[in-house]
Amino acid sequence: MTKNIATILIIDDDEDVLLSAKLLLKKHYTNIIIRNNPKEINQILSKEHIDVIVLDMNYRIGFNDGKEGMYWLKHILGIKPEMVVVLMTAYGEVELAVDAIKNGAFDFILKPWTNEKFLATIHAGLELSKSNQKVSILKHTNKTLLKNDAKKFGPIIGKSSAMMKVLDVVEKVSHTDAHVLILGENGTGKQHLAREIHRQSSNNEGSFIHVDLGALSESLFESELFGHKKGAFTDALEDKPGRFEMAENGTLFLDEIGNLPYNLQSKLLTVLQDKKVSRLGEGIERPFNARLLFATNAPLHQWVLEGKFRQDLLFRINTVEIEIPPLRKRPEDISEFVSYYLKVFKEKYHKSHLTITDEALNTLKSHKWPGNIREIQHTIERGVIMSDDDVITPSDFNLSAIDTNKMTDIAVYDNLNLQDIEKLLVQKAMHKHEGNISKAAKELGLTRAALYRRLEKFNL
User: Fold this and answer.
1) With contact defined as beta carbons under 8 Å apart, do 50 and 83 qualify?
2) CA distance 414 to 241
C-alpha cells in the first residue's frame, strides 16, 4: 500500500491511545508524531510541518470539562490559523466538542473510535489542510506579483494641478465598490492608474486581472471572460474558470472597453447587472465578487449618440469617470518623468554616472509627446543606451528624426523605405489629431486595433 505523504501530530495523555492511533495511521501516512504533553506543541510546530493535529480535550486526572483542550485549540489557531485540528473526546463531551468546532476545530473523534470513522476524519482533515496550504501559497504568490507589478509600473508620477485632481478622485473612489471608467489617450497610463485604485482598495490582497478587450476575438470573448466547461467546444479539453471568477475578491480591469463589439455589449451588461456568470456549456450560474474597473480612449458618449455603444452599458460602467490628461497638457510633469526614467534606465544599463545636459532636458520639455508616457519612457531609454560619454545630449534621443513638429511633407520625403514612410504617416496622423486614436485611425484607413499594433511596432 502506498502511503500518503503527510505529517500528523497526535496529543493525548493516555499512552495506549497514542500507540493505538499511531499503529492505525502509520499504515496510511508517512509520518506520525505522538506526544503526551500539549506543552510541547510550540516546539514541534517550530520544527515540523504538521498537516493535521489530533488533540485530546482532557489531560489532568479527574477533570473532564474539556477546558484544557479548548485552551490548546485556541493556542494552536492563534499561532497558525490555517491549522486543521481534530479533537478526541468521550461520548459525554460531544456538546463540548461541538462548541469547539464553532471555535475553529475541524471535527471530532469519539472514544473509543471505529477505525473507519477515524481514518475518514483524518483523510477529510488532510484534504482541507492541503487546500489551506494552496490558498496560503496563492496569497503569498499574489502579494509577490503585486510587489513585482509595483516595481514594473512604478509610482504614479505628476504633481501638476491636473494630476492632483486625478489622484484626489482616486483616493475617494478606491475604498468603494463603485465601477470606475478611466479615460485617456493612448500611453497616458490607464492601466497604471487602475492598478493604483486596486492597491488602495480594501480588496488589494486579491488578484488584479487585466483583460485587453481590444485583443480579444469575438469567438473567445465568452470563454475568456466567463469560462467554459470541458467539451463545450472542440478545444475545451478541461474545465476553465473565466476572468470574472479569477478576479474573485480582487479587481477585474476590462481595458479598451470601447473595442467591445456591439453584439457582445449586451452579454457583458447582463453579467454586470446580475453579478453572476455562466460558463460556456454549463447551466450553473456562479455569483462573483470582484471590483470592476474599465478603461478606453474612445469617445463613448459620442458613440452612444452614433449607436456604436450601448447607453445602458455606459451608465453601468461609469459610476465614476476619471480622465487622465495627456502629457502635453501637463508639461510641468515632464521633468519628473525624465528624472524617474533616467534613474531606472541608468540602473538597468549600468550607467550610474550618466547625467543629462540642460540642452537635452530642454529638448524633452519642448517636445509635444503624442505618445504620452509610453513615448517618453522609450525616448529616455534610447538616450541612455545611445550615450557614449557621461552625459546625454539631444542627439542621443534622436527626436529630430521623429519630431512631429518638424516633419517633412511626404511628397518630398527622399527615403522610399515603406516601413519608414508608414511610421512617418502614423506620426503625422497622431500629431494632427493630438493623439486621438479613433480620428487618426480613420484618416489612415485603419482599424483602431491596427493602429495600436503600429504604435507598438514603432515604439510611439
Assistant:
1) yes
2) 54
For the residues of 213-267, what is the DSSP string, one character each?
A: GGG--HHHHHHHHHEE-TTSSTT--S-EE-HHHHTTTSEEEEE-GGGS-HHHHHH
Which residues touch 176 (CB under 8 Å, ≥6 apart)?
A: none
- Contact between residue 317 and residue 294 where contact means Cβ atoms under 8 Å apart: yes
**Quick one: pLDDT at residue 179?**
96
Does pTM surpass 0.70? Answer: no
Q: Bridge-partner residues for 292, per DSSP?
A: 252
- Judge contact between 371 and 430, C-beta under 8 A: yes
Distance of CA 77 to the CA centre of its chain: 29
Amino acid letter, 181: L
Residue 317: enclosing H or E segment and its boundaries? helix 311-317
Angle, vertex CA 157, rays to CA 152 and CA 160, nearest 5 = 170
Cα(460)–Cα(453) distance, rounded to whole angstroms?
A: 10
DSSP letter (8 states) at residue 176: S
Q: Which of 11, 49, 55 has the alpha carbon at shortest distance from 30?
A: 49
Q: Average pLDDT of 402-415?
A: 47
What confidence category does residue 62 fall into, taking pLDDT thresholds of 50, 70 and 90?
low
**Per-residue cell: 27:** 499504515
Q: What does the angle CA 190 – CA 196 – CA 197 come to, to the nearest 5 degrees?
A: 90
